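Protein data:
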Amino acid sequence: MLELVKAGGWPMVPLLLLGVIALAIVLERLWSLRRNEVTPPGLGEEVRNWAARGKLDPTHIESLRRNSPLGALLAAALDVRGRPRELIRERIEDTGRHVVHRMERYLNALGTIASAGPLLGLLGTVVGMIQMFLGILDHGVGDVNQLAGGIGKALVCTATGMIIAVPALMAHRFFKGRIAGYIIEMEQEATLLLDTMDGRLVPAAVAPAAAGAKPVTAKG
């Protein structure tokens, strides 16, 4: 392996650096984009129960805001509770843009690595080929096996660039898809909270209290 790195020449240094950065980004995003960290199970229902029971003191809301991206989105809606529905929705959308931006942190860098890796590898190969042909110009063709070995060494950079780029591209697409799924889930939770605050939806924990009430029959 060390011999291949030496054979690739100086372009291998930035290529290996890109590989290390890509690996660090992938590990960090895998940790940060865990489901329990983004959309904790049961959080939406718990917040709807708060809203239905009126337990919305500033301490609860601030704790919710720091809980998770979903918590930040729901807290933004609770901050403007009692306002017109469209105003609350605008606040949710504005907060949602900030939440998505935080979830997509470093993904642009990962996408850049996926695009730049093969190009940098190709540059290393071109530089190696130029050096080899300049050597032929000065000393002649010489041994054909040596010429083939030189071409093989020059291609090391291209192979390295592709080895780095393919996993980086796959990880980039994977994280984009996961974030898109989280966005849909958070939109659904925000809509349910809006319906609860409008009185259109009764949370499951609150519904049993009203279950014993006599139903109202329509007058014929």
